[in-house]
User: What shape does this take?
Amino acid sequence: MLNYTIRRLLFTIPTLLFISLIIFLLLDLAPSDPTGNLPLSIPAEVREQIRQSLGLGEPIHIRYYKWLVQFFINEPLNIIEQMFDITIGDGDRLRVTSWSTRSPVVDLVLERMPQTLWVVGMSYVVGVLIAIPIGVYSAYRQYSWFDQTGTFISMVGFSVPTFFTGVLLIVIFSTIVPTDSFFWLPSIYDTTHKVTDLASFGFQIRQMIMPVFVLGLFNAAQISRYMRASMLDNLGLDYVRTARAKGLTENVVLLVHVLRNSLIPVVTVIALGIPQVFGGAIITEQVFKVNGLGHLLIGGIEAADIPLVQTLTFIFAVLIVFFNLIADILYGILDPRIRYD
Amino acid sequence: MPDGAAPILEVSDLKTVFTTRGGEVHAVNAVSFELAPGELLGVVGESGSGKSVTMMSLIGLLPMPPAEIRGGQVLFDGVDILKMTDDELRDVRGSRIGFVFQDPMTSLNPVFTVGFQIMEPLRKHMGMNKKQARARAAELLELVGIPEADARLRDFPHQFSGGMRQRVMIAIALSCDPKVLIADEPTTALDVTIQAQILELVKELRLKLGMAIIWITHDLGVIAGIADRVMVMYGGQVVEQAKVKDLFADPQHPYTRALLETLPSVTGKRSERLKTIEGQPPAIPEQPTSCSFRERCSLAFDRCARENPALYQPQKGHDVACFWDVKTGGPRDG
Assistant: This one.
């Protein structure tokens, strides 16, 4: 298993280099102009100078090489310096810098990460925690009213887009419900809010409820269907009859024998879904004004902020590759029939 | 088998019905039989004759719904199993009645070690702790002829061959010293040499441990070599029941005779086509009011369509449900 992991990790290096090149070339092909948002009164030669100062005068392979150096060498060195409070070399390195904000992209990402993890991450956790028991019980009582209701809600949760459910909730809980009511919820996520005491914690919960519910419903709808299907696949198998013939209680049969087998594919699906958490639910973040990573990416695209978009997209790619590896390793751990060595 | 000993298992008038979209299927129709302690009862019949369903319903292993037990009594050690609560029934299953199923490749849980799966009933029914259960599990593996038992307890089912897995299944079934072992076509999925090994093992274990066995199969050859008594089932009913020697020497029911004729003979002419019984076993949508075999029976006459034959005893220990008397070559009277 260790050998396999190391081999896979080594294989990710060329994969990621290739992905970064593709992203770079695609963005370079895009007909966007970083000076396009500047006032029209700026003369053409000044615009040209701005472009030159952003490094756009260099040939493409030089620009790609510089991004590689900045991202893979300078940024990690910088993080190490900050973590251990030391200076490597003269400490003066060129970092990947956002064109529109002039601040290092990695700092921007670290700044936006907590909001995304709180809201989107929490919705994923909530979704998984709801989905697994629902999936198990729906399969165990297939076609019961519980299962039918679950199926209906999943269909709704899965097919109604989050920008609809989100706006619907805002209309109900932020506008129809009076502001002084206990059920009123804020429609705008306040990032500057700090949790210091019970009351402020309560407010944090209140402002998380709607985005977490909207995304959680979507995630739970998806994962509960996988869980149900996987349980149904297993419930009819011979080993379940053997477990019953041994006189084990239904709880043990279901939650030890069947669940352990059914979780194998579901865990993979869950692991593969985690990169999307980091990617932020772009639309939901927009609807509830959560300034997380999805928000950052949209802003970067609108401002033609190529280094920001390039770096963010690449970080998402790294996460996807990484969690693919995690999913494969989990498969090997959960299913004894799979051996990688 | 000691004659006249109180039976360990006494089934009377068992009726099981499946409710399906296409209506009801009466899979078990008033089945009655007895099993003496230490006896090996063979149950034969083609697919769909109700042999597995009978055994599954008497121990509550059928999914309900669609299955439903409509009536009857199953006395195990003098207590009616059908009246037990689910919890009481679970205490009987796996401890006093053991099961071995047909396909050893799928009957074990693939993600748990063999040791864990053998230890489960030991810990549940015998109240053993982990260490005791482990020691007993190793003993059991040795008992069923798996070498290096201690090490193999840590292996997963996929690391065993089919025959070995069936041995593991037998070890699980025997773990709590059951009084009855129900083996549902335990050798059907195995190749012939492994079949022979498993048969030998069961014969040997039976002598050692002295439990009664119900052996379900459609292979008459297996029955001839292992059983004390044979029960032939057709259409969810017992059509003939006799000691193994009597049944093979003097089959009374046309279905039993037809079954025996389908056995290819080693000494017979090669050019001959294999014999079959024409037609399909019937699906039975209601309590039968006529003989369910009559459409495939060459001896059927008008009475077979009017009445369902009850078991008749032409001689002691030999029951047959047929209106035709093979001795006289004419209809039975009464």
The domain at 2-34+110-334 of chain A is CATH 1.10.3720.10 (MetI-like fold). Chain A has one domain: 2-34+110-334. DSSP finds twelve helices and no strands in chain A.
